[in-house]
Amino acid sequence: MDKIIGLGNALVDVLATLNDDSILTEMELPKGSMQLIDNAKLQVINQHFSRMKTHLATGGSTGNAILGLACLGACTGFIGKVGDDEYGSFYRENLIKNGIDEKLLICDLPSGVASTFISPDGERTFGTYLGAASTLKAEDLTLAMFQGYTYFLVEGYLVQDHDMILRAIELAKQAGLQICIDLASYNIVENDLEFFTMLVRDYVDIVFANEEEARAFTGKDAAEALKQIGQMCSIAIVKVGARGSHILRGQDDIMVPALPVSKVVDTTGAGDYFAAGFLYGLTCGYSLEKCGKIGSLLSANVIQVVGTTLPQHKWNEIKLNINTL
Description:
It comes from Bacteroides graminisolvens DSM 19988 = JCM 15093. The protein has helices at about 20-25, 40-50, 60-70, 85-95, 160-175, 185-190, 195-200, 210-220, 220-230, 270-285, 290-300, 310-320; strands at about 5, 10-15, 35, 55-60, 75-85, 100-105, 110-120, 125-130, 150-155, 180, 205-210, 235-240, 245-250, 250-255.
């Protein structure tokens, strides 16, 4: 089986379910977005969280996807940076527990935290304090980190450091890996469109985007955005929520329906787990359609729980269902 290495912001998610969205307005966090926050705003959010029931989980877009892949039985690795603190230890221990080859670096800043607000409709909004994750630099990366893998998954959230993300992709290319990118968030794409365009056009083999991200990237609706992105890379995937996903490779244009879910609890990780399922299918040599169906299967399961942690019995069910797709 092909191996997958991911690089991303190593964040610990602190999740809280909201009764209404008033706190998002108060915190100036646009619903459904990911906003970077400073330590001062993190402390204000923590004051709110101290009066709410919260849930702790390892997070970060690539981290979630790599976790999902590992739970399916894929051979995985993860590169990131954490602090020498309780959250950093929590992150490392979770990687090891799930058989992920951890390549975590340590710095003096506190570990990154993604304060995650879950609206009544299941939409999630992030106030992200990057902390230690933001100190991962180009010079931290070596060719040896990427050798022995087939795919490299990177998150668009890392685009704040152009030198680092370019260094990572160039090293991965040098090691012969296929490059996969998740565009991450519509506002991130809008704010650095020229750089995203260069990355996809010149380096990337597989692009994952949801409908809003695809529109931010191309200015077009899902169907037209898929065509434009597909002209820039080998495989383009545009996810359209409850309507499913569009997959394009050359002349192969496939629509994979989403699986029906009676109640959406929390959409955190839905896109990350779709990427995990899709890439797992690729490592197994499955058709594009089956890859998309595995992505949909994982997404449907993760949106029925708070956070991105599924119990082992659920993973056993998923594995059995994959065999029947």
